[in-house]
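Any chance you'd type out a single protein's sequence alongside its tokenized fold?
>
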Amino acid sequence: MPARSSLLRLASAGAVLSLALVSCVGGEPTNSTPDSSVSQNQPSASPEVQGDLVTYYEQDIQWEPCENGVECATVQVPLDYANPEDQNIDLALNRRVSEGAKRNLLINPGGPGISGMEMLTETAPYIFSDKVKREFNTVGFDPRGVGESSPVQCETDEEKDQSRQENLRAWVPEDREELVEQSKDYAKDCAQNTGDLLGHVDTVSAAKDLDIIRAVLGNEKLDYLGFSYGTFLGATYADLFPQRVGSLVLDGAMDPTITTAELDKEQAIGFEGEIDAWLQSCLDGEQCPFDGTLEEAKMQLQLFFAQIENEPLVSSDGRTVPIIDFVNGFIIPLYDNSSWPMLSTAMTEAMSGNVDPILYFSDLSSSRDQDGVYTSNADEAFVAINCLDRPMDSDPETMQAQATELMRVAPTLGKYFSYYALNCKEWEYPATGTPQKLEAKGSDKILVVGTTEDPATPYKWSQSLADQLSNATLLTYEGHGHTAYGRSNDCIDHAVESYLIEGKAPKEGTQC
């Protein structure tokens, strides 16, 4: 059995936006009907594109009607950009056409591993204003290895369910030994079921794919909106192709210079702080399963987690919910403060023995529907992409030291963030990426958006990325939650949309 589901998985903006729609949307979006006859610019290779890549840049794209009132198409890209003539893979795209629009806005919800095609149909219609919809054809895409784009494949749905129910705790030595053995099996299954693609789902390759998509769509420059991990993909593109940057919005930025250990620590601190804010809100509200001071409430929460570590709860459908799967569900509402009341209700139920509401959130983060079908490969793609993008030190003493530090800085959640490197310990493909600055020298203005109390991508990461990029402006949302555009306030939305449509970035230092 695999180790992946026995270690914490963090959601991206895609799951958060979907959760927000559960309680906030009260109607259907107004969709324009796609028209396959809409005139499009012809694809053409940029002058600097040479050799075997030219055929990829000059391929024709054929749009066909598909589900949810949009159009779908397939674009071919090289499996290996070092040898583009050897083998190609398919990328899946969809679009919502706006009559008269001459620009295409590509969207990425993050992850890595979340489907941009799913975002286009499920959440994009609600977050974009009519002005944006009139200006752009919105285009969703699944990056290589994700969703419908030559996906990474490791497990069956039954295996995913089974592994999520195992009560393996990485901070317990005996359990950790079992996780090490499972990680070997998981790596072997991923390699066997995915093939050579597994060594080429890195973000640099995905960014090069973006440039082929840009050219095939007929645009001289790339207009792009990326959330969370999507900021890393977008910034990588800008660094590789600075002269082809159009309107580029990077919301909830990742810092490309930090190590995996630093990333884990800073996210653990971020979620620890968000727990404090949620708990205080809970105590100040009408329905809360905790009482006393904030410190006392936090101790009650930690004691409850400790109980689940030793005695997992069981859902109404008979599934066991061990501590890792419980925490995976618990943190989802922490991504958006508008969902805090839902978390308070879910915890009230859990502490009364009903784990179903928390399991709903965990299923949401894993893309599992009510019929037991996993509708995406998000978890598998998450591991595969991260194992290539960032070197991870799986030395036992190093992981132990990091776990000790995580528990010190984040006493409630730190232990659950520990030992992530086990995922990549037996990976058959070594990491190709390394922490480094992304500068995108010579690009047009790039807009970075950061949220001051973002637990998943801490605000200082947005500050750092804006400083690294040679021509970027930082827009700040003063509030809680992961990312800002489409879930914060009109000030943020207007600033982002003015930049997208008119190319006018807000004044440096703008806060909303």
User: Anything to note?
Assistant: Residues 21-39 have pLDDT under 50 and may be disordered. The chain is about 40% helix and 15% strand. Residues 260-284 form the longest helix (25 residues). Residues 1-512 form a domain with the Rossmann fold fold (CATH 3.40.50.1820).
